């Protein structure tokens, strides 16, 4: 009797379990279908938006391989029949070569990045971890200087650098770029988020303040330092206004000013040469971003979460 009941119960339980398994599978299939629809509903508009943003770059590359007469022809021919590679040769080695301006931009950008990282990390750590009277007020006053439009400071800086003999030199671009409020603010916010217990334990072991900064907190800040390096490099590379005011000799021009040298016999922009120079000018920015992109994204994510 007992064996019969057990067998009957086993036969009754089998189809029930099978039905429950089928229900779970259907729910999982519906969930996967909803997730797929949700991904497509977000993905398709984002792809379209990305293509819209990429169109100017595609036009720039296409125009860089055309003669000037075909640059603005309608309808536009995206792939030229005979690519004009001579535009790149002319831009690099011709009469108005951008190589000098290119190296000037590299020199300025590298020194500005090194200076900015040095001052921002030290100042950020001091505002975040060191105790001194008036620390909060000094930090607020420093932040308040960012409210002054940069254009208002151009004339005083022009007079000041002229008196110092720095006018028409690359140092007129490098020195102001080594100290920024945003860099100090970003690093200060990062160091504030780090536990104070690290420093207290290091002090008990006899470590000095600079050792605590350089051996404990600084190695953990590589993602934020990478993000700040990318931002500083891009700001320096694309800066047109400051060189326009502080530089007057062609041999000191940076790349944004060097791009204005390509004109035709009527003084109008030579589209093919200008776009070829523009394509070359964005290569360093792409390389910097590709090298540091993971750390940059991680730093932005961590900043958003905090």
Automatic annotation (TrEMBL):
Q: Which Pfam families match?
A: BPD_transp_1
- SUPFAM superfamilies given in the database record: MetI-like
Membrane-spanning segments? 40-61, 101-127, 139-159, 171-191, 212-237, 267-292
Q: Taking every annotated instance into account, which residue ranges of this chain make up the domain ABC transmembrane type-1?
A: 102-292
Q: Which UniProt keywords apply?
A: Cell membrane, Membrane, Sugar transport, Transmembrane, Transmembrane helix, Transport
Q: Where is this region: Disordered?
A: 1-27
Membrane topology, from the record: Multi-pass membrane protein
Q: Which residues form a coiled coil?
A: none
Where, subcellularly, is it found?
Cell membrane
The entry sums up its family as follows: Belongs to the binding-protein-dependent transport system permease family.
What is the designated name of this protein? Answer: Multiple sugar transport system permease protein
Q: Which organism is it from?
A: Brachybacterium sacelli
């Amino acid at each position: 009797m007992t064996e019969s009941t057990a067998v009957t119960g086993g036969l009754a339980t089998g189809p029930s379990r099978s039905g429950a398994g089928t229900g779970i599978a259907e729910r999982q299939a519906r969930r996967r279908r909803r997730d797929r629809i949700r991904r497509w509903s977000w993905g398709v508009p984002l792809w379209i938006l990305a293509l819209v943003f990429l169109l100017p770059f595609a036009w720039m590359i296409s125009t860089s391989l055309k003669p000037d007469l075909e640059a603005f022809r309608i309808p536009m021919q995206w792939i030229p029949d005979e690519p004009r590679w001579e535009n790149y040769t002319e831009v690099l080695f011709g009469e108005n070569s951008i190589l000098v301006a290119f190296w000037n931009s590299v020199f300025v950008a590298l020194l500005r990045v090194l200076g900015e990282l040095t001052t921002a990390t030290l100042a950020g750590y001091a505002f975040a971890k060191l105790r001194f009277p008036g620390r909060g007020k000094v930090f607020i006053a420093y932040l308040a200087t960012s409210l002054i439009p940069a254009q208002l400071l151009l004339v005083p800086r022009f007079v000041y650098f002229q008196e110092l003999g720095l006018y028409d030199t690359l140092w007129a671009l490098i020195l102001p770029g080594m100290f920024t409020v945003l860099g100090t603010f970003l690093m200060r916010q990062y160091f504030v988020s780090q536990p104070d217990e690290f420093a207290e334990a290091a002090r008990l072991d006899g470590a000095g303040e600079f050792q605590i900064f350089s051996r404990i907190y600084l190695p953990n800040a590589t993602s934020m330092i990478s993000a700040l390096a990318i931002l500083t490099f891009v700001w320096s590379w694309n800066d047109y206004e400051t060189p326009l005011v502080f530089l007057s000799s062609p041999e000191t021009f940076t790349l944004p000013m060097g791009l204005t040298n390509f004109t035709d016999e009527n003084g109008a922009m030579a589209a093919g040469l200008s776009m070829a120079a523009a394509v070359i000018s964005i290569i360093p920015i792409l390389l910097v971003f590709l090298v540091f992109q993971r750390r940059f994204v991680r730093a932005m994510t961590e900043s958003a979460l905090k």
